[in-house]
Amino acid sequence: MLKKPTFSPAQPRCAETRLTQVWFWARQHPQRSPPGKSCSASSGRVGEKVTPPVFSRLRPRWLALLSILLFLTFTAPFSEAQLDRLRRSKALEQPSTAETSMIEIPEGLFPMGFEGTQALEDERPKHQVWLPAFFMDLHEVETAQYAAFLAATNRLAPWQWNTVDLSQHSDRPVIGVDWWDADAYCRWNGRRLPTEAEWEKSARGTDGRLYPWGNRVPSNDLANFALGARFSYSQVLMPVQSYEQGKSPYGLYQMAGNVWEWVQDWYAANYYEVSPEQSPQGPEQGQFKVLRGGSWSDLPKYLLTYGRFKLSPETRNSYTGFRCAKS
Description:
Layout: H1 14-28, E1 39-40, E2 49-50, H2 53-93, E3 102-105, E4 108-112, E5 127-131, E6 134-137, H3 143-152, H4 166-169, H5 179-188, H6 196-204, H7 233-236, E7 260-266, H8 271-274, E8 289-292, E9 309-311, E10 320-321, E11 325-326
């Protein structure tokens, strides 16, 4: 890549010097043409320099053009330097981040879905699913971790990213990411999004419990939920390793509440009726992607381990984050 030449104050660029001289000369001699641009005419005095009528009419135009050129010449390098300093300062402000610990989920069967009138149509029937062993993130992806991803890639910043203060919010879950953002982050980190079946087993275990912590109705000491609809990183999101009593059977944090979590699968209302017994991957295509777990805004009924939700993969909002998995 070609480098821009550098100039010291003692060696100004010729173009800048010439433009500056012309501009100041024009200010001091408004009735004359600039040096090197005058012409001779017979006005009764030999050698007298006069301004041609055409140049007189064009004077305001070339003065304006010179002003613009001078402005761009002097301010463009300064603006580039400012931007470079801003980028460097942001890089220095970014805290060091550690990779999320992963918990191994053992192979085996578990009950997926639910039966009875309490279950919605897309949550039935209850069926047995076998999964090989896999790894699941201990907690949701943090803003500090996502900031490192943004610094290393050209990814578009999430919705509401301008309100993030890493000195205060580094341990909060990132929100405002769509499915493609979540998928890109996990791949960048050498991981992937979990399948819907992997997510449910990680949250539910093998005993068919209603919530990650058991069958007890959600309360403020177990999960972050039912906080209304007004978003603030400081006021509605909790640090990703909160609620010790609300952990799943495998020790994962906040598999209920805080933020909805994107999973790998496309959504189909009748998928449980046709899904394979081993390692279901979801439909091959669809209009919506599945989310799991409920958020800071939701009522207890949305925090159920078998509860399903769907959104367009391009959706970005304050309720949605994610975590990663690995085979």
